[in-house]
Amino acid sequence: MPLHNVTVEDSSPIVVYRNYSQWIDSLNNAPDYSQYSGPSKGFNSNHNTSEVATVDFAFNGSAIYVFGSTGPNHGAFTASLIPNNNFAPVADYSLAPANSIENTTSTSFSNETKYKQVLFSQTGLDQSVPHLLSLTNSGEGLFILDYFIVETDYQGTGSSIAEYILDDTNLRFSYNGNWTSDNAGEKSEAELEFQDLFYNKTGHFTGVKGGNTVFRFNGSGVAVHGLWSYGAFIATLDDQEPVPINNTNRPLGAIYNRPGELIYYAENLGEKEHMLTLVNQQPMQFGGLDIDYAVITTTNLDSVPKGINITSSNSPSGSTTGSNGNSTVTTHNNGSLSNNHGAAAGSMIALLFMFFQILHLLPSRR
């Protein structure tokens, strides 16, 4: 059965920093800046805290891995993993619900600084239900988060998975309202260099509230990447409930305008045609919505449009890696953990985003 790994960066809007004022978004002038992962070249990042603070990540999958750094000034942290979406709105998640399948205290202390270390992992999960992973720093030292990897088992779907990219200029994207092309108009040398970080050097942006894009695709999963900055939008997949995604509360030192950021994804949707609608909720002076490209996951190679390059693995023990500009796409059939942790495309059941909105309403621990 083919396995699929997805990387979710610490800077993605689907990662929720519950006590956001107690977290620090890493600065690009830090001496070890290049040691961390990021959504695109030159935008490496980590989120760190020395306070008692929590980060939440909801996902569907058969396994979860958390990566970060360890060092002599790091301390203890608690990991709580809760299945299903029946979470009581509690203020202190150190009091894990009774149905928690994991509630452990660990440490990221080490005698010397090490990067891209597994801080927490759990395998053999029931991927038919969503899980909420909460990581709480003890306040006794540093906790530094780099990225997550979620592994999904495509059970009963054959021996291979394929991924292909549809750029923002593809006709499967329809734009309604006032949208502009990021590659339009005169640009300075610095702006041209920044534009090179976009897939095919193109993107679509709207700063009009209500401006929307409708994206139709064939496959089992979708991942949308864009220039994520300050703003909010609503995502509606097929006939599911609309889901608000909010990036207006960000940690101290937050770096905006990160190209290639994973801003939405969904998985295990069923191999058929789907429709995803993204609606901007912020006027330009408060942010906006920027679309760069989408990555489609499929188990049916015949559904890939003609002329589109794909990456796939057709043998039960093989894997294939392909480059798509600023991100790396890898598919695995043998269950090995991918070491590719760039701006990877991936997928997750859209219902998970509802967790994020609930968590934003929870009181902060002080």
Automatic annotation (TrEMBL):
Task: Give TM segment ranges.
Answer: 342-362
Outline the segment boundaries, as ranges, of region: Disordered. 306-335
Give the domain of life. Answer: Eukaryota
Q: Which UniProt keywords apply?
A: Membrane, Transmembrane, Transmembrane helix
Biased-composition ranges, Low complexity, are 307-335
The protein depicted here goes by the name Uncharacterized protein
Q: Which organism is it from?
A: Sphaerobolus stellatus (strain SS14)
Q: What is the lineage of its organism?
A: Eukaryota, Fungi, Dikarya, Basidiomycota, Agaricomycotina
